[in-house]
Each structure stands twice: as C-alpha cells, then as structure tokens.
C-alpha cells in the first residue's frame, strides 16, 4: 500500500509505503519529478507538481524502505521502480510529493485570514471561486477547513486570478475537495462574481 502523510490533502505529503504490515518512508536521495509522478498517478492524484525532500512534511517513523528510487515516470506502482533497499538515510531525508489534484485555500483582502475573497491553489495556480453555487454549506465547509469556525456572510468580489473553480457541497463535507467541483468550465461561471466569506473565527 501507498499513502501521503502530513500534507493538507490526500494528494500532498510524505511518501509512505506499507511492507509486511509496517509503514515506512522513502529516502530523498535521487528523488525527483518522475518518481513523484508515479506516486501521484498511483494515488489517482493527477501528476506531480513538486517533489520536495528534506522531510518537508515532517519526519516519518518506522523503517526507511527505499533509497535512490529511479522511476522513469511510466511505472504503475512505486515498487516497480528500481531502488536500493539498503540505505544510509535518516528520517530528516524523507521524500515528499505535491500532486496536481491537491487543493489548498486561502482568504485574501479581508480583515484577517478568516475573511475575504476565496482563493484555491489547484494544478499549480491560484484561482478564484465562482459564486454561482456558493451557498451556506460551501462557505461553512471552507471556514471549518481553515479553522475559522462557521460562515457569517458571503460577500462577492471581482475575479482577479486566471483560473475559476466551482464547488457544490450536498452536505458538510470534511473539505471542499470532497464536494463536487468543476475547474475552468465557462458555463457554471458565466456572469458570476468571485465568492467570498466572512467566518466567525479570527485568523492570522
């Protein structure tokens, strides 16, 4: 089994493999984008945007199961790639991945980090969110994801960033990435404004 740990979504984090019931990590010696691409594709997270080393997502635990991984990028599973099983690494060299399907959010232009225009980082760029389907559930999910409590208001702004995202949450999902979403399709964003939110918490 394979997973990403310590990131902000299931498509970002420290690379961890399971071997004989024990989870371990991968050393960052020789770790690069083709290696990360295999991880992202295996987890159905698109392609690799970054392949950070040096325990960028914190130090893991357990054995270090791979070193000098040398994927070409077309392999279906990470364990199909050539690698050294003996290593001279410590967990401060744990390999990480940021995949294109990873999403993170911020609020800009408001009084603090819990108010403002909603911006989403997705597929390597920051985008605005269309307010055509931006209702109470969507706003509340975002406030809770950011640790900002619940939504008080949903102000509108002009679109100022290149990409546009639409979210549709049927209920209070753990994050907007688990709601239905559409990226860069003009129809749902036609004549929309950029979504905003004012949460009842305060943030930096």
UniProtKB/TrEMBL annotation:
Keyword Disulfide bond: yes
One Pfam family named in its UniProt record: SRCR
SRCR domain span: 2-100, 105-200
One CC-aspect GO term: membrane
Magnesium found in the keyword field: no
Listed SMART domains: SR (SM00202)
Annotated disulfide bonds: 71-81, 169-179
Sorted UniProt keywords: Disulfide bond
Name the UniProt record assigns to this protein: CD6 protein
Lineage start: Eukaryota, Metazoa, Chordata, Craniata, Vertebrata
